[in-house]
Amino acid sequence: MEQELSLINGAKPQPKRLGKNGDGDERHEVIYRAISDAIIKQQLQPGARLREDALTEVFNVSRTGIRKILQRLALEQLVTITPRRGASVTRPTAAEARDVFAARKMVECGLMPEVALHITPQDVSELRDMAKREHKALKAGEQSTAIRLSAAFHERLAQLSGNATLAAFVSQLCSRSSLILAVYGSAGNLGCESHDHEDLINYLAEGDGEKAKAFMNHHLMEIEASLSIVEEEAVAPDLHQIFGMTS
Amino acid sequence: MEQELSLINGAKPQPKRLGKNGDGDERHEVIYRAISDAIIKQQLQPGARLREDALTEVFNVSRTGIRKILQRLALEQLVTITPRRGASVTRPTAAEARDVFAARKMVECGLMPEVALHITPQDVSELRDMAKREHKALKAGEQSTAIRLSAAFHERLAQLSGNATLAAFVSQLCSRSSLILAVYGSAGNLGCESHDHEDLINYLAEGDGEKAKAFMNHHLMEIEASLSIVEEEAVAPDLHQIFGMTS
DNA sequence: GCACCTTAATGCGTATACAATAGTATATGA
DNA sequence: TCATATACTATTGTATACGCATTAAGGTGC
User: Closest to B163 (Cβ–Cβ): which among A72, A99, A164?
Assistant: First the structure.
């Protein structure tokens, strides 16, 4: 549970305290991405605590900035902030897992016809490239990279619909899905295996929105089915319920 | 454009600086709600600036807290934060308006069958009550109340589906819709008039999810059609495109 | 020996102070 | 009189300092 925080600071050898405001916004974006990535890639596992002081040291920004980032992550449900206990990587409940996949089925499938209409040959080749890289990562055993690429694929797909609002929503759902995979996925079987993505691209390239829609539905159901979504409940056992007392 | 900020502080006669941490979180939630409500009720119109100092005075909290709240509102797209210019109520673009309504059609319609399955007589009477109050407000000419109640109705409906994730998303979409109505709606015709909501409840009470779905689609299309969504474009004309220069 | 109380340490919530920047106004020169 | 440049003001971005809460450990009393 306790992990080394420094590992998420992949490419920033102490920014040298670049003072008050060396393009400040940029830095925050970078840090946000770093933490987000670390969570999605499961370098930071559900339940891992994210102490503000530790992050402050790692990224060399003040707590103010860290807090801003943590709150953003909290709104996206990647981290959970408990009032006086601090932030930690959220451990999705079974209900949340169900909700997220239901939402993905509804939105991502609904988007497919639109995508099929708008897609260009350029987009197709880009998607194929992404699928190829994902496949390669999977074969090389780089799980975290594969998960990340898979999420990126689904996000890119949603963007192609042209609806920025729904694309952003899908993006969030994909991030949360990565967490869900981390908690409820069995070791060997991590979603989006096989050639599903390649097949999906073919349908879209043909302009067959309905087939793509049906296939996406199947695809998501398969991923969900591969999970073992059972409530762990260890966190806060409901003593009232267990012992049948009212107060 | 410049409005009186104090009007959003409806019911808090100076909390008397209740010190360091008198259930601090609670206060923030209240303030968040107050600002959010004021935007949705169009007491704060799109483009209105939200200066941190002013809010600090009105609500009697430090800028730190205000900033937190503003950032939350920004993530929900209710306010826009421009890097060194501060926060203002967002003025939705035409593209955003289209995206939001497309999203609402997809999600809210998709949720109807689920709602029809889960709904209880208790829920039905609650919804009828909400619809009645909305109608009354509309007849009494209380526009802002009516808009707020209408949004609340749609949100409650989404909640009844049992999917918290999608419900939260719908909630956001409804908030943004209020803004869109404020910008693109014609004066007289503010959405959700007539007895649409009552009819919808009837379909749901009968358990006819498909009819409810179709009706919801019609309902949302009607609202969207009543808007005059034309790009104002004054905001940030793309000079590169206009003058055809590459750099 | 066990339980409870006290104390210390850790860590977050809040406020305040300082730095930097964008917008505005004014002054000066042509 | 108009245009340009400079100085100023208003407002945000960032960091730091302080205070309270919670937790854990150690000591003392029973």
Answer: A99
